[in-house]
User: Which sequence fits this backbone?
């Protein structure tokens, strides 16, 4: 029986809490050479794609620039264009919002990247929430959740129509409450016809958009019942939209920790978690939950009392939208700290850093990946290294050969385009 094949992607970190930029071996998060190094390493490891997240505005905390994370991100399309010139096979995923872009110009830009890369362009279809992001754009303001997703569907329909009309001279007309478009494609048909589409939302609306349009989905559920439930839900939605259960690749995002022994890997994972939550980071996380400042808080001591919570105050701006009950979240944190005798920082480490399933020796990690794919919990993983740009090097050197030995991972490319290598028919 032929084994299900593992698909891997490389997430260029930066707009997330995974990156450990304080270590001596960490390089620039914004220098073009860092993007090229990660992409070339991933390509050497026969990975399907490199994924770039996006930040439409610098993150803030209490009205000030959040200077404990990467401050800034070069333009996604320009960055991927220069990576395309330095690589030959790896897919190039741009995270671009349907909320603040316009379909005709957007379709032209992605089609141009697909031409430039000889068929390796991909779009991570996302929406943007809040007036915080909207302040950077002419329209300002923001859309209600229902309107965000309705606009995303109308936007995608228009973009797909323009891609499909490339080279025909036909005019694409879209007229609804979001757009009034009469446009013709200004670029010839691209190598993929349509660039590959990804989606990274977990809300019901996001899952529906993925099931309707996407070739792959970036999931936050890396292992266990949550991953299995998510995969089953996505496959049900695919069938409801008249697509095959295997029409969309499910790629959970996860960090990893490799060691010479299992114990060594566990220690590396533990050290990564603590380095990801510095004392200053712990204070800001606590302030975000409690809705107030705590200047001078000793993070080696206890958490602030529950009565200090100020509900309804959002100190942090620029993160992905998460609906939380601040008081309940604070109560949960306090209860865990008291039950386990944890300091404030230790409690934040225990509750806010994701525990990766990919911890062990290279052979152990290869086995975990293989089993997850054979059991249909996922189609592979989106790897998020903790160090930029060299954090993927050991994985490629030591885990990839183990996967190839297990017969679940390619040793040559299936085709010349991302769509061919991903094994994805057009949605």
Assistant:
């Amino acid at each position: 029986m032929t084994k299900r094949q593992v698909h891997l992607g490389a997430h260029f970190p930066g707009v997330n809490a995974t990156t450990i930029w304080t270590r001596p071996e960490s390089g620039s998060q914004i220098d073009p050479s860092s993007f090229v190094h990660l992409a070339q390493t991933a390509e050497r490891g026969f990975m399907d794609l490199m994924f770039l997240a996006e930040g439409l505005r610098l993150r803030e905390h209490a009205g000030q620039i959040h200077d404990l994370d990467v401050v800034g991100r070069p333009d996604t399309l320009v960055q991927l264009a220069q990576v395309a010139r330095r690589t030959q096979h790896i897919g190039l995923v741009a995270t671009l919002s349907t909320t603040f872009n316009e379909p005709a110009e957007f379709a032209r830009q992605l089609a141009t990247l697909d031409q430039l890369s000889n068929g390796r362009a991909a779009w991570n279809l996302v929406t943007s929430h809040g007036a915080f992001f909207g302040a950077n754009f002419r329209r300002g303001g923001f859309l209600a959740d229902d309107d965000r997703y309705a606009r995303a569907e109308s936007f995608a329909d228009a973009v797909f129509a323009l891609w499909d009309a490339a080279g025909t001279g036909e005019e694409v007309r879209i007229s609804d409450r979001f757009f009034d478009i009469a446009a013709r494609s200004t670029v010839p048909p691209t190598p993929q016809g349509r660039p590959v589409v990804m989606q990274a939302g977990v809300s019901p609306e996001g899952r529906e958009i993925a099931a309707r349009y996407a070739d792959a989905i970036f999931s936050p559920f890396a292992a266990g019942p949550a991953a299995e439930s998510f995969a089953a839900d996505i496959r049900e939605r695919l069938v409801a939209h008249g697509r095959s259960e295997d029409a969309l690749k499910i790629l959970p995002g996860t960090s990893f920790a490799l060691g010479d022994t299992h114990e060594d890997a566990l220690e590396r994972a533990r050290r990564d978690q603590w380095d990801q939550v510095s004392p200053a980071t712990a204070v800001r996380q606590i302030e975000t939950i409690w809705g107030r400042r705590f200047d001078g808080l000793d993070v080696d001591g206890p958490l602030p009392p529950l009565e200090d919570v100020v509900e309804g105050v959002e100190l942090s701006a620029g993160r992905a939208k998460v609906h939380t009950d601040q008081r309940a979240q604070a109560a949960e944190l306090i209860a865990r700290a008291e039950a386990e005798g944890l300091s404030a920082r230790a409690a934040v480490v225990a509750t806010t850093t994701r525990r990766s399933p990919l911890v062990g020796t290279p052979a152990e990690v290869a086995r975990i990946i293989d089993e997850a794919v054979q059991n249909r919990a996922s189609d592979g993983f989106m790897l998020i290294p903790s160090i930029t740009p060299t954090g993927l090097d050991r994985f490629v050197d030591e885990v990839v050969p183990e996967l190839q030995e297990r017969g679940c991972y390619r040793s040559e490319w299936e085709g010349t385009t991302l769509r061919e290598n991903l094994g994805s028919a057009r949605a």
